Amino acid sequence: MKLVVPPTEIALYQLRVLKTVAVADGKLDDLEYQMLMSMQTYIFKTNVLIDGLKLITPQELSSKIISREFCKQLIHYCILISIIGARVTRNKTRVVIEFAEALKINDCAVQTLKHLANNRLALVRFNVFRHGFIGPKVMDTLRNEGIGGMIPTLKYLMSKGDRKTAARYQKLEFYPEGSLGKELYQHLRKHGFNLPGEEGGTPEIFLVHDCVHILAEYHTSMSEEAVISAFQAGFLDKDPFWGLLFTLLQFHLGIKVLTASFTSRNEVEPESLFKALERGTHVKVNLSKNWNPWLVFERQVEDLRREYNIPPRT
C-alpha cells in the first residue's frame, strides 16, 4: 500500500493535533517525541521543530478545510500516539475523542479506543482481529476453500495434529538450498516450532507470517516481531492502522490480541516501527491476501525478494 502523504499545510495541522494529544497528561515524553519525529520522516515528509509546534483546539481544527481521507487518517494516528506511552489515560483518550467529534469521525477505530479505555478487551480483540491480519485471511480461506480449509487450524486449536498436512510440510526439508520452502523448514526447526500438521504446529493460516520473516529478514525476538507486524501493515492494500494498533497492543501494552501468540511490554521503538511500515509500502504483492506460498516454495528467496520489490533491510 502506498502511504498517502498529506500536503505540507495539512501535515503541519496534523502534527499540531498529534502533539496536543501527546501532551494531554502534561508533557511530551521521549517515546511521544520519537513518534512525532518518526512520523515526520516516514509519513508526513516534513522537517519542523517539534518544540515549536503550537497546540490546537478541536474547534480551530474543525474550521480548516481538510478532506475526509486526511481527517480519518489523523484520528487513527491520534489513537496510536495516545497509547505509545504504553498505557491508556483518560486525558489522552478524551482529547482524541474531542478531535474525532470535531471532525465527525466515529468509525470502528474510535469505538475501539473507547473499548480500550473502558477495559472492554474482548471487544478490542474482536475489532482488531476482524480488521487486522488474521480476520481477512480467515475470510479468504473460507471463500476459496470453504470450511474444509479451516480444518487444520481447528485441529491446531484443539491441540491435535494432521498427518497428511504434516507429511506435506516435512517434504520441504528436501527442497533446494536457498528456496523459500527449504528456508521455511529450517526457520521453523531452528526456532523450535513444529510444522503445520504436527501436534502443536504452526497453523497454516499463520504461515504467511513465517514466510515474511524469511523474505524480509526479520528475526523472532519480541522487538523484531513488533517490527515485522509494522512491515506487514505496510504491504496491505488498506489502511495500515489496524496492523499498527495490533503491534502496539500485543508488543507494547502487553494485551494479547491473538490467543496463540506471545505478548510483551515496551518493545516498540517508534523509529523502527515507522521505518518498517514505510519499507512495507514498497512491496508490490499483498502477501496477506490470496498469496499461496506453495506456488513459490521451490523458488529462490533472492529471486522472490526482487520480484516482490522487497527493499534490502538497512
Task: Explain what you see.
The chain has 2 domains: about 10-120, Orthogonal Bundle (TerB-like), CATH 1.10.3680; about 135-310, no CATH class. It has about 325 residues and is mainly α. The longest helix is centred in the first third of the chain and has 16 residues, at about 70-85. α13 runs antiparallel to α14. It has helices spanning about 10-20, 30-45, 60, 70-85, 90-100, 110-115, 120-130, 135-145, 150-155, 165-170, 180-190, 205-215, 220-235, 240-250, 270-280, 300-310. It has 16 helices and no strands.
Give a nutshell description of this structure.
With 314 residues, the chain is mainly alpha-helical.
Chart the SSEs and their pairings:
Elements: H1 8-22, H2 30-44, H3 58-62, H4 68-83, H5 90-102, H6 108-117, H7 121-131, H8 134-145, H9 151-157, H10 163-170, H11 180-190, H12 207-216, H13 222-235, H14 241-251, H15 270-280, H16 301-308
InterPro entries: TerB-like
Shape: elongated
**How many runs of DSSP E, i.e. beta strands?**
0
Count up the domains. 2
Mean pLDDT: 89
| CA-based gyration radius | 21 Å
Helix and strand content put the structural class at: mainly alpha
Tell me about the largest β-sheet.
Answer: none
Ends apart, CA distance between termini:
20 Å
Order of helices and strands: HHHHHHHHHHHHHHHH
Number of helices: 16
Low-pLDDT windows of residues: none
Residues in helix, %: 55-70%
Which percent band covers the strand fraction? under 5%
